[in-house]
Amino acid sequence: MSLRSANIERIDGGLFDVLVVGAGINGAVSAAALAGRGASVALIDRGDFGGFTSQESSNLVWGGFKYLENYELPLVFGLCRSRNRLMKAYPDNIKEIGFLAALDHSSPYKPWFAGLGATAYWGIGLFGTERPHLYDAEEVKEQEPVIDTTDVRGAIEYRDAFLVDNDSRFVFSFVRSALEAGAAVANYVELLSAERIGDRWVCHLRDTDSGDEITTAARVLVNAAGPFVDDLNESWDLRTEHRIVFSKGIHLVVPRLTTTRHDRVLAFFDDTQRLFYVIPMGRRSVIGTTDTRVDTPYTEVTDEDRRFLLDQINKRLDLPSPLTPEDVIAERCGVRPLVVTRGAGDQTEADWTSLSRKHEIERDDHRAVVTVLGGKLTDCLNVGEEVAAEVEHLGVPLEKDLGNWYGEPAAQTRSEFYRQARLMRLDALRTKPDTEPLTDRLWRRYGRRAFDLLEVIRADPTMGEDVMGSADYLRAELYTAAQHEMVVTLDDFMRRRSKIDLVVRDEDIEGSEGLIEVARILFGDDADRRLADYRTARASHGPHGPHGPHGPQGPGDAHAHENG
């Protein structure tokens, strides 16, 4: 029996303290916090873990420097503290990085004023990063030769952090934490209906992969459905004080643009005086994001979006030749769920652009429902702790929070893994230039499970070979994903457990002989069908179609989705 099937069997007919609906960052961190404190928890999502907005973030962990514009000092302070906690808890997954903001004559701030803001930001963040630096135009060119400094007055470099791997992989780390703490978790399980009967919710669910229907029960429901929280609450006749509005953001993945040896984010004000970034992603760069009000969570990158971002970056970089749509390797597109007070009326355009990424958590004592609205990846630990407090208030007893539901393994465990990897000369298996050492990558992605990978590679050296030549993914990792990561569709692996779809061109994926082996390792006898489904979806919509990988959903088909 597969891990997923075993968990669905546990959910079927079970009675849990808490059922968390939605497995984006909000739902995943809530399940991890609750299970880590002794609650019996079930976590479901109609799609994959981190499979909607959680897979469309900027991969940044930041305190919200831009929120200083609106004097949201408490929010910035809280986000900076959260950033510092995450950097400390995930030293291999979350790294400090510089943000070099180039300021030209059309920018809203002069360099000296931006420098004051960056210094204030550093202080508000309790000096948790390296100090900021102010550069003149000549120094900007020395720091980052690719920037066109013709009209640049100067720049400020401040510090925040970024995810070394992709956002969905980070979300999955909380799913795995919940699982290890005893939670029952399952992707591709939708909530068909929920009815409050006596002291519990009786919930009817459907496995969207097999079509099987099951029933479960829980004393408390956590609505962590991201952009769909309002729809889900409406289906339960539940009304909250806040509601969600949507802002669409896109990113374009292109070949690496920056030439410095060290990773650094470039920041610019576009022609509308909104910030956008060039973010490193290994051998690629990610350009974005935009900020467009939309009325639906289902979005796609338009020709206008694409032209706008390419035009903005071409104006600000000194490239050998301008970027064109043919240079785009992959596209990311999602909505930010922004919180507004219900009944406050529509936001004006001015209000719209100033809305922050705060979160609100509401509790309905009569119905025993906790709703998570808004938020961002940086604030995830606070969300987990606040949800646990609200669930405890509803009568679910929790153990003392020892902080063991998040973070990487202890430093001693890491040292032992590196010792063993060094003895077996693991990094010598990799001969490609400009690639990350295998020891670093395996430890960051798998933690304690990386020891198992060493054993497998010792026993069979072919397990240490790359399956897809341009994807940097070992055969041993495929077997680990098949056994432990609940991969249901090929897109789950290519887009979320790994970031192959984000960094490898479509023609290289389709032309890779390794793609067939990937499918066979992951799905066995079902490989041909899963591979055909993957190719059909890509042919219909491209790798990132207008509805993501799962299509439209109704009010009861809730995900938890969260942009980073």
Folded structure, characterized:
With 564 residues, this protein is α+β, with helices and mostly antiparallel strands. Helices cover 35% and strands 23% of the residues. Strands 3, 4, 5, 6, 11, 12, 13, 14, 15 and 16 form a ten-stranded mixed β-sheet that branches. Strands 1, 2, 7, 8, 9, 10, 17 and 18 form an eight-stranded mixed β-sheet that branches. Helix 14 (475-484) packs parallel to helix 18 and helix 18 (514-523) crosses helix 19 (527-541). 51% of the residues are buried. Mean pLDDT is 91; it is low at 543-564.
Give the SSE layout:
Blueprint: H1 3-11, E1 15-21, H2 25-36, E2 41-45, E3 60-61, H3 73-89, E4 94-104, H4 111-124, E5 133-136, H5 137-143, E6 152-163, H6 167-180, E7 184-187, E8 189-197, E9 200-207, E10 213-223, H7 229-235, E11 242-255, E12 264-269, E13 275-281, E14 284-288, E15 292-294, H8 303-316, E16 330-341, H9 349-354, E17 359-364, E18 369-374, H10 380-393, H11 411-423, H12 438-446, H13 450-459, H14 475-484, H15 490-497, H16 500-503, H17 506-510, H18 514-523, H19 527-541
Parallel strand pairs: 1-2, 1-10, 2-7, 4-12, 10-18
Antiparallel strand pairs: 3-6, 4-6, 5-6, 8-9, 9-10, 11-14, 11-15, 11-16, 12-13, 13-14, 17-18
